[in-house]
Amino acid sequence: MTLTKSLSWTLRLAATLPFFYWLVGLFLEWHGVEPLVKINTQSGYVVLILLSINLLIGAVHALKWLDIKYYRFLYLERRWLGITCGFYAILHFVTYLAKESFLPKGWEQILTKNYLTAGSVAAFILLILMITSNDFSMRLLKKNWKKLHRLVYLAGFVMLFHIFQIEKANLVLLLLLITPVALIELIRIVKNLVALRNKN
Ligand code: HEM
């Protein structure tokens, strides 16, 4: 097996580890008295990390910061990263509903609490991107596939709002969590604006 293939498989395995940790932990009672609260918070962080990595790879590629030979294996793993990210976003959503005992109040709060509405929009976008991350959808959607998958940047923005609302009282943690994605999004906006100006 080549080094690239080994690295790809290591990345894939690493991305599945949190799920198995939570699953086994539920049976072996590793997650304390409120396992759902713990899994909900941790899965939020996992979604954030996977989405940040995916956005970063996209930015490095779009801005030609590095020769692709240094990160080709990561670039090729973007689809897998997107699928895993969508999966954890669903898990994060389901654990929220489970925390609310799947009662109607849990659904109502999604419409009445801004941070939950924003999180749900982001998770919905990630779900759409996950479902369409396959060769069949690429063939079906043709040029529109790329346009659709640009929604990942919108998901990034709404996700920033979700985390901002939750962590606004804890400035240090908030900055740690949102700075990488916020910077990537800012750079993309500037790049698109410059490209638009050069076009006109
Ligand atoms: C792309 C989608 C999402 C991302 C990246 C995300 C990310 C996060 C992160 C990182 C946290 C931990 C914040 C902290 O406690 O320091 C969190 C907490 C939380 N998220 Fe999400 N989230 C997303 C979608 C959702 C959705 C769809 C829901 C439910 C409708 C939701 C409900 C919650 C709740 C209830 C918490 C715990 C809040 C608290 O501790 O008070 N999230 N999320």
Helix and strand element order: HHHHHHHHHH
Total separate domains: 1
Bound molecules: protoporphyrin IX containing FE
Report strand %.
Answer: under 5%
Based on secondary structure, the structural category is: mainly alpha
Alpha plus pi helix count: 10
Q: Summarize the amount of helix as a percent range.
A: over 70%
Distance between the termini: 49 Å
Low-confidence stretches are none
What would you call the shape?
globular
- The whole-number mean of residue pLDDT values reads 93
Rg calculated over all Cα atoms: 18 Å
Count of individual beta strands: 0
Main sheet overview: none
How does this model look, in words?
The protein is 84% helix and 0% strand. The protein is an all-alpha fold. The longest helix is centred in the last third of the chain and has 29 residues, at 171-199. The chain has helices spanning 3-28, 35-62, 72-76, 78-99, 104-112, 114-131, 135-141, 143-149, 151-167, 171-199. The chain has one domain. The protein is globular and about 55 Å long. Helix 2 crosses helix 9 (151-167) and helix 9 packs antiparallel against helix 10. The structure holds protoporphyrin IX containing FE. Residues 40-41, 44-45, 47-48, 51, 89, 92-93, 96, 110, 116, 119-120, 122-123, 126, 155, 159, 162-163, 166-167 line the site of protoporphyrin IX containing FE.
Question: What distinguishing features does this structure have?
Answer:
mainly alpha, 200 residues, binds protoporphyrin IX containing FE
SSE topology:
Blueprint: H1 3-28, H2 35-62, H3 72-76, H4 78-99, H5 104-112, H6 114-131, H7 135-141, H8 143-149, H9 151-167, H10 171-199
Helix pairs in contact: 1-2, 1-4, 2-4, 2-9, 2-10, 4-6, 5-6, 6-9, 7-8, 9-10
This protein binds protoporphyrin IX containing FE (HEM).
